[in-house]
Design goal:
Elements (H helix, E strand, L loop, with lengths): L2 H4 L9 E2 L9 H7 L9 H18 L5 E5 L3 H10 L7 E6 L2 H11 L4 E6 L8 H8 L4 E7 L1 E2 L4 E2 L5 H8 L2 E5 L11 H4 L3 E3 L13 E5 L1 H8 L12 H8 L11 H17 L1 H21 L16 E5 L6 H12 L1 E2 L1 E2 L8 E5 L7 H17 L8 H12 L11
Helix pairs in contact: 2-11, 3-11, 4-5, 6-7, 12-14, 12-15, 13-14, 14-15
The structure holds pyridoxal-5'-phosphate.
Length: 406
């Protein structure tokens, strides 16, 4: 038998992705992706790129000229944000409270830069006063942090970080991969110098693009580097010749993903940023009530520190991580994530992002988790989780569903 006969038509399963990315993709985005490819220098496409940049500035809430989607996943966003301002031997501070903020530190170390890590255990936020202490009297190029630390489900409040960066004469670099369009974020309002995200999280587009925005101050810092940026691909000054007014060839961008980005941003702004943040908040609140009613414990003990888009739950003693995730997938077509690094086998991470973040999905998931845990002899009050979630929805006045599955 030939390979062609063996390898059948591509038929991926229709999963409900409640992971920290990728999240489910809205059908309107799939429709946009079916549009024909045009050349990246086509006048129609060049005009369309302007639209994407206008929409992106609104979603980031910024006037920054240098705002565009990088052709890379979220990690490419980290790479660009870190490599552009830093010359070899420069000093920077990275607030490390999980795997993604740690990735920022690792990338900076490879430049090689002198990286001061202000570290706290997973599940905690970093105190800006600690950052100020660590940087006092030094020449700090930037202070970097993860707004939403997806590995532990923690949101790092941004208030005070602009002041700390100012006192240190540093740029402020923020990883908003897991927060943009799901959690309140105002790039200009918070005075962030370099902010980046990922397409597959709360924006709910397919993976593969990392929107980034760079302030005038950061542009100037990049312009006064001693040496060229050590990455050709992620050099923002040359990439901007394509995304800027010159539109000079830099690399061939993923045309289809840019269509998807355009439609995803349109969907975000149609819903409205405030309504979208509120939808995420309400659905997570219902999820948390349901998990607690089941007798489960959240990993992040301080409710104010919990990231709305990713909920970390402690795996109860005697319950095997892999068995639960396998049953959720096999019996219910639901994917959730396990822990990373030191938290592997200790927590589950449940993502409620973008199109995945819907009332029906919360209720289906709670029912599925209840059945799965009961099968594994975890004792819990039958029906309590969905009842608690429904009650939580009743207490919130606004509709929990913005757009249903179609
Ligand atoms: C997912 C994530 C990343 C990495 O994004 P990839 O698309 O997997 O490269 C970086 N930072 C945070 C906070 C994330 O949640």
């Amino acid at each position: 038998m030939s390979v062609e006969e063996n390898v059948g038509e591509l038929l991926p399963p229709d999963r409900l992705m409640l992971t920290p990315g990728p999240s489910c993709v809205d059908p309107r985005i799939y429709r946009a992706m079916a549009a024909p490819i045009v050349g990246h220098m086509d006048p129609w496409f060049i005009k369309m790129m302007d639209d994407v940049q206008v929409l992106l500035r609104r979603v980031f809430q910024t006037q920054n000229h240098l705002t565009f989607p990088i052709s890379a996943s979220g990690s490419g966003g980290i790479e660009a944000a870190v490599m552009n301002p830093l010359d070899a031997g420069d000093e920077c501070i990275v607030c490390v409270n999980g795997a993604f903020s740690e990735r920022m530190a690792i990338i900076a170390e490879r430049i090689p830069a002198n990286v001061i890590r202000v570290e706290v255990p997973y599940g905690r936020t970093v105190d800006p006063a600690e950052v100020l202490r660590a940087g006092k009297g030094r020449k700090i190029k930037f202070v970097g942090l993860a707004h939403g630390e997806t590995s532990s489900g923690v949101v790092q409040p941004l208030a005070d970080y602009r002041r700390v960066a100012d006192e240190l004469g540093a740029l402020l670099v923020v990883d908003a991969v897991a927060s943009l369009a799901g959690v309140p974020l105002d790039v200009d309002g918070e005075g962030i110098d370099i902010c980046f995200s990922g397409s597959q999280k709360a924006l709910s587009a397919p993976p593969g693009m990392a929107p980034i925005t760079v302030s005038k101050r950061a542009e100037e810092a990049i312009g006064s580097r001693r040496e060229p940026v050590r990455s050709w691909y992620f050099d923002l000054t040359t990439a901007m010749n394509y995304w800027g007014k010159d539109r000079l060839y830099h690399h061939t961008p993923p045309i289809t993903l840019i269509y998807a980005m355009r439609e995803a941003l349109r969907a975000v702004l149609e819903e409205g940023l405030k309504a979208r943040w509120e939808r995420h908040r309400m659905n997570q609140q219902a999820l948390v009530r349901g998990l607690e009613a089941m007798g489960l414990e959240l990993f992040v003990s301080n409710p104010a520190d919990r990231l709305v888009t990713v909920t970390a739950v402690n795996i109860p003693p005697g319950i095997e991580d892999a068995a639960v995730r396998k049953q959720l997938l096999d019996e219910f077509n639901i994917e959730i994530a396990g822990g990373l690094g030191p938290l592997k086998g200790k927590i589950w991470r449940i993502g409620l992002m973008g199109y995945s973040c819907q009332k029906t999905n919360v209720l289906i998931f709670l029912a599925a988790l209840e059945k799965t845990l009961s099968d594994l002899r975890f004792r819990l009050p039958a029906g309590a989780a969905t009842a608690a979630a429904l009650q939580s929805y009743q207490q919130t006045s606004q509709p929990a569903l913005a757009g249903s599955r179609k």
